[in-house]
Amino acid sequence: MAHTTDETLTVLVYSDDRNTREQVSLALGRRPAADLPAVEYLECATTPAVLRALERGGVDLCVLDGEAVPAGGLGLTRQLKDEIYGCPPVLVLIGRPQDSWLAAWSRADAAIAQPVDPVALAEAAATLLRARIAKRTPAHR
After folding, report:
1. Torsion over CA of 51, 72, 98 and 110, rounded to 10 degrees?
2. Which residue among 18, 46, 84, 102 is least packed, with the fewest CB closer than 10 Å?
3. Where does the Response regulatory domain start and stop, copy by copy (predicted)?
4. Which residues are registered as beta bridge partners of 90?
């Protein structure tokens, strides 16, 4: 898949816990897969910050902490899927594998159980980012 060298992808990471946000960005690194452009991170600690970022546009993937408080990432995912036109793909971090039914209810595009497995997270993120790039129109900005 060809891409321009100056293109970057934006990954929004939502958690009320700074350590969780840091864990996600460290796991994904600068480039989740060799065939993808570089990634930059937009960290959000509150629901209003997530909503403002998505209203501005330019987000290619959301990684939301299902265990965040007071607003968990699962409920937020469902809200985003309902309210944000062209909502980017959402990957939720769930507390345990048994919570995967909640991820399905939220309409998340993928779910990874915590603690974060860096390989599983990178693979899921890369799959979602490739699909996002493929949906883009070939017209240049």
Report:
1. 10
2. 18
3. 10-129
4. 62
